[in-house]
Amino acid sequence: MRKPHILQVGPYPEWDEVPLNEAFAVHRYFDASDKARFLAEVGPQVRAIATRGELGASRAMIEACPALEVVSVYGVGFDAVDLVACRERGIRVTNTPDVLTNDVADLGVAMMLCLSRGMIGAESWVKDGSWAKKGLYPLRRRVWGRRAGVLGLGRIGYEVAKRLKGFDMDIAYSDIAPKPYAAEWQFVADPVALAERSDFLFVTLAASAATRHIVGREVITALGGEGMLINISRASNIDEEALLEALENGTLGCAALDVFEGEPALNPRFLSLDNVLLQPHHASGTVETRKAMGQLVRDNLAAHFAGEPLLTPVL
Ligand code: 8YV
């Protein structure tokens, strides 16, 4: 039987590339030097797009594929997929929730600990001889027992809050409405009020037009000069200009960030700050989780072409 033609938007680990090419006729968009020409040539054959959370599928890409039936996202975030364009043509969309939840929550908490206790600088203190020359590493603030806010108590935010319980933290969260499964934690509707009562503010919201810049100047100022912002969601949830200004002038204490506008080409102003922890969008980046993500991408595609229910449909 003829293999369905799919457009692969970005690279996957080797262990995904082999089975993907066994099951499908794969057109590698990211390898094309002239992407517009490539799309014009292969687009008419493409029945599915296999993409990644941060790469998505634009309206132009979708419209270049008149036979497109399904978009399968390697990642939980589907904000970079033009859902309106998909809805207009009845194109299905899938993502890879659950399999990555715990890893993303783990990295968020690890970033909080690492930045709060100054572990990157402390390793330099050992390696550059400062410990021997200057003595004790400068004292930092503790984490346990302090106040944490979780902005967005979905799957990932819930797992972050669960982990913070282990540090005896005073936990509150903000979401559209109180969550029945979170009665043990204080619900604070307003993100500004949540920031005001937090020392650590985790941004774990699914990104959308409605959440764009939800963490703006007001929230950042409310978190304050002793506060830490941790973003493991999408850069679009934060007003990055306001964040940079606050970090540069001390209005915000520090920030631990796994996502950036224009990534991997992040704003160079981040690189000269000493009150940030910068990570390369790798919160879901473990072998086990990335294998599970890749498998789910393929399983959704296989289900679609077999006429069976999709495993993790978004649309
Ligand atoms: C990326 C993510 O998709 O799950 C998401 O939405 O942002 C990440 O897991 C992953 O880095 C693959 O590119």
Automatic annotation (TrEMBL):
Record-linked Pfam families: 2-Hacid_dh, 2-Hacid_dh_C
Gene3D superfamilies, A to Z: NAD(P)-binding Rossmann-like Domain
Key word Ion transport present: no
InterPro entries in alphabetical order: D-isomer_2-hydroxyacid_DH (IPR050223), D-isomer_2_OHA_DH_cat_dom (IPR006139), D-isomer_DH_NAD-bd (IPR006140), NAD(P)-bd_dom_sf (IPR036291)
Occurrences of domain D-isomer specific 2-hydroxyacid dehydrogenase catalytic (ranges): 28-314
Signal peptide per UniProt: none
Keyword field contains NAD: yes
Record keywords: NAD, Oxidoreductase
SUPFAM superfamilies: Formate/glycerate dehydrogenase catalytic domain-like (SSF52283), NAD(P)-binding Rossmann-fold domains (SSF51735)
Residue stretches making up the D-isomer specific 2-hydroxyacid dehydrogenase NAD-binding domain: 109-283
UniProt family annotation: Belongs to the D-isomer specific 2-hydroxyacid dehydrogenase family.
Protein name: Lactate dehydrogenase-like 2-hydroxyacid dehydrogenase
Species of origin: Sinorhizobium kostiense
